[in-house]
Amino acid sequence: MEETFRRSLYPELDDIDYGIIRALQVNARLPFTQIAKDLGVTEKTIRMRVQQLQDEGALSLVGIVNPVKAGFHVQAMIQVAVDAEKLDDVVAALTDTVEIRLIVLTSGEYQLFTQVLVTSNEELSQFLIKKLYKIPGISKTNVINELKILKSKYNFIR
User: Which residues belong to the signal peptide in this entry (predicted)?
Assistant: First the structure.
């Protein structure tokens, strides 16, 4: 039942596409020849399908950096309430801020949800005081320090 539900979310993907995505989710460096062998198709088919999935925005092959190993020992989620008429300006300012990794438009009391990566609590404090709190249009924030990541997954298709 769960597989049927998941498949109904992406009806444009066929069994080969699902097989490719499943394989690349585990190891994005897996040779196309191996994927082709596992799926019983040609390497050219895999190469063309991967390119098509990338062109359509269904698949991105990227290296994922472990923030802690890269020196970003402090991660925080920040909810941001914004004056409605300033939303575009605030998003533009946040987008240009290097410490911010993620910006999400949300519903409810806070219009934006962001993830910030910094090297220390002192750097987080400086970011808040010297950058975030100076952006016009932000009316309120809620800073949530991430204490420990309990689950982080990139495998969406099984």
Answer: none
